Amino acid sequence: MDELSALFHGFSVVLTPLNIGLMLVGIVLGVLIGVLPGLGGANGVAILLPLTFSMSPTSAIIMLSCIYWGALFGGAITSILFNIPGEPWSVATTFDGYPMAQQGQAGRALTAAFTSSFVGAFIAVVMITFLAPLVAKFALKFGPPEFFAVYLLTFCSFVGMGKGSPFKILASMCIGFALAAVGMDTVTGQLRLTFGIPDLMRGFDFLIAVIGLFGIGEILLSMEEGLAFSGKSAKLDPKVVFQTWKELPRYWVTSLRSAAVGIWMGITPGGATPASFMSYGLAKKMSRDGAKFGTGQIEGVVAPETAAHAAGTSALLPMLALGIPGSPTAAVLLGGLLIWGLQPGPLLFVEQKDFVWGLIASMYLGNIAGLLVVLTTVPLFAAILRVPFSIIAPVIIVICVIGAYTVHNAMLDVWFMMAFGVIGYVFKKLDYPLAPLVLALVLGDKAEDSFRQAMLVSQGDLGIMFANPLVGTITTLALLLLLWPLLARGWARIRKPKRVEFAQEQPVD
Amino acid sequence: MEEATTGGEGRGLTTHTVELVVAVLVFALGLTVLIGSWKLGSKWTSDGPGPGYFPFYISLIMCISGAGIFVQALRKHPEGTFADRQQLKQVLIVLLPAALYVLAVQIVGVYIASAVYIALFMTLLGKYSPVKSGIAAVVIMAIFFLLFEVWFKVPLYKGAFNLLGFTGY
After folding, report:
1. Whole-structure pTM over 0.80, yes or no?
2. Which residue from A minimizes the CA distance to B127?
3. Which of A506, B3, B92, B164 has the most beta carbons within 10 angstroms of its beta carbon?
């Protein structure tokens, strides 16, 4: 019960008019950042960090973490309304959220997304409050082989759970890995696959790919049907909110499972992106309506949003307890702690109780404030859908160009984004899944680093992936998932001699 | 790309042709990365795995996948039209001006190029009056200016001549 009394002390620290005001400002700014593609949580927090230098560390971290919560909430808005994920973890939300908006259920989808985000974050904060010491101790056991095994599990789950051609899933994934390999090699410092182009030294940022594949690609797809597309009705009145809230408890199993996946991926730095994809895949596999996923199922919005917020929240745990940031935004927040003269790590819990428990209390309050702010501002964002497509289309293209430019202030990135747009259009029409490409691009570097470190430790012996029960279990699970299509086909042939036609089935996204 | 010769409404690119072309491109990309990784050093060095070690195996899987997709497309011969002429026309109506817009951004910067692009798009494709389109374009770009330059301190590309230099940003 020490945690409870510490938490109440935290509330007493947070509940000052100044801190509550900062919380609301942070949420609104965060939602704005989340909505704008290219201005992600990490960028947003980094840009606004100097604003907090004059504040006390507690007030500063409250505002910055609220920007983070706001960005997590905001990512869902453009995903659902425009099919443009403002953040990589919002990609999975587009799969069912956007079809729902097209069917005139944008309000329902947004309410489900925000509420699930809140639920995911709330469960994660409760976990942080009570299990912080245990979880931190467990995460300490992770070495490079364990990290690589987690990445392997994530990637294998795409091949195993995807219902499209496995070759197409693999091709898409490998393109992502290849793009991630471009630029400076983090281990040897050597330039890789730059082909003499200086601008390629910094590599391909996933945001460039995401903006092109999903933003421009979707515009091109929409244009095939001409300019007839205009915004669907996206009213969000309190009735819709309450009706959706009544409906959501039906998916409590999905919510709990997604929160568990999110917390796991947030603590082990898999991050919010694989968490959202994994929980979407699991929900698709386990739901009674799994076959209908991708056509506008509310469960397909609940799963990734719950997981992404749970992961985003729990990513702060290793940052606070161990000084290891679980996400890029957590890394920027960690930079903030160092600037304010605080040393992240276990001692922070002893020496800076006000700060740590103030932050944890602000997680509870910040998410409640976030939910209220986004639910009340949704009509504002939903109104955008009522604007004719001939105005929205060029504005989205302009936002995509600005988004691609602001990542590195480079015009070449804008051209790359356009190229990704064409790739996205062609891939979508040919049923190549785009999610594995984006995920491989995001996690490629980390996965490769873990693999190389593991290989260095074992001097090239792959047996290290089975060196202890923890890494062995994760690796075995990954391999089973990878071989799942073959095993399932073999099993189906034994039971009933029927040929499975992969290409005729729907791909994972 | 080759066009289907079947007449009528379905005239355009066949899915089969595009499947084969994309499979070849995937294989070619894989081969390019494979050669690049090989040159970098894809084997085990005295310091551990070389810089091309990981990309080499990735590109190998990419080549195999490309070949697999090609064989699958040949065997199953997917039917249907990837995009008919009308659809291709619609896509190009957006894609080509968008490419010209990016080119214009490089010369006159984000603000002016975007305002002109939005105004022309609304006038030519949306059939709005030039005055309405112009006002909408200027208002939208003014909001973007305030948002990025003033509030978030994110400078956007002003182009080779910086026609907005008088704003002080």
Report:
1. no
2. A390
3. B164
